[in-house]
Amino acid sequence: MIDFLRGPVVHLENEYVVMDVHGVGYRVFCPNPYAIAKAEGETMVYIHHHVREDAIQLFGFPTRDEQKLFRKLIEVSGIGPRVALGILSGGSPEGVITAIYQENITFLTKLPGIGKKTAQRMILDLKDKLDGIGDSMMATGLFAATTTAPAASGGDVWSEVREALKALGYTDTELDRVWQTLKHEVFPEDTVDAVMKRALKMLYTG
C-alpha cells in the first residue's frame, strides 16, 4: 500500500492533482487541490490507497491528521471516500473532530453530503475513536471558529481567512486584490474553511 508520495505537482483539476514521482504520474484526489499545488518544487502528500473491485484510487492529504481522520470517516456506515473527502473540504480536521466531541449536529450537517442521521452516526461511531488526531492544532485554538456559529458578516470571516493566508506567506497586496473580488461572494453563513478554499483557488489561478 502507498502511504505517501513526494514529488512536484504537474497537473491540477478541481478535484485532484497529478504528481510526478520518479517519472510516473499519480492522480491524487484531495480535499483542496489548490493548497497542495501551491507548493513550489517537491511536495509530500499522505496517501490513502483505496482498492475496490472496479477501481484503485489515491486520496491525498497535506497532514497525517487528515489522513487518519479520512480513514476513520470511511469506517462510518453511509460515508464513502467521496463523502469523506467532501467533509474534509468543508471543515478542518480539528473542526470536525471538535464537533464530534461536542455532538454539534448543526455544524456536522453543514458539511457536504452529511444529513442529520449520518451526523448522528458519526458522533456515535467516532466519539471514542479520535484520540490523538489533531491534538497539536486544537491546543492552539486556531480552529475554534469552525465549530461555532458562522461569523456575523462576510468581513469577519475574511479577517480570519486573511490571517491564515498571511501565515502561509501571502502578501497584503495579494490578499487585498483577492478580497476585492471575493467580498461580493462571501456571506455570513460561509465557514472560514469554505472561504479559505475559495481564496486559495483565486490566488493560485491569479
Automatic annotation (TrEMBL):
Its main location: cytoplasm. Residues 71-90, 106-125 form the Helix-hairpin-helix DNA-binding motif class domain. It is found in: Cytoplasm. One of its GO terms (molecular function) is hydrolase activity. Pfam families: HHH_5, RuvA_C, RuvA_N. It comes from the Bacteria. SMART domains: HhH1. InterPro entries: DNA_helicase_Holl-junc_RuvA_I (IPR013849), Hlx-hairpin-Hlx_DNA-bd_motif (IPR003583), NA-bd_OB-fold (IPR012340), RuvA (IPR000085), RuvA_2-like (IPR010994), RuvA_C (IPR011114), RuvA_C_sf (IPR036267). Residues 153-206 are annotated as: Domain III. Keywords: Cytoplasm, DNA damage, DNA recombination, DNA repair, DNA-binding, Hydrolase. Belongs to the RuvA family. HAMAP family: DNA_HJ_migration_RuvA. The RuvA-RuvB-RuvC complex processes Holliday junction (HJ) DNA during genetic recombination and DNA repair, while the RuvA-RuvB complex plays an important role in the rescue of blocked DNA replication forks via replication fork reversal (RFR). RuvA specifically binds to HJ cruciform DNA, conferring on it an open structure. The RuvB hexamer acts as an ATP-dependent pump, pulling dsDNA into and through the RuvAB complex. HJ branch migration allows RuvC to scan DNA until it finds its consensus sequence, where it cleaves and resolves the cruciform DNA. Has three domains with a flexible linker between the domains II and III and assumes an 'L' shape. Domain III is highly mobile and contacts RuvB. Homotetramer. Forms an RuvA(8)-RuvB(12)-Holliday junction (HJ) complex. HJ DNA is sandwiched between 2 RuvA tetramers; dsDNA enters through RuvA and exits via RuvB. An RuvB hexamer assembles on each DNA strand where it exits the tetramer. Each RuvB hexamer is contacted by two RuvA subunits (via domain III) on 2 adjacent RuvB subunits; this complex drives branch migration. In the full resolvosome a probable DNA-RuvA(4)-RuvB(12)-RuvC(2) complex forms which resolves the HJ. This is Holliday junction branch migration complex subunit RuvA. It comes from Paenibacillus wenxiniae.
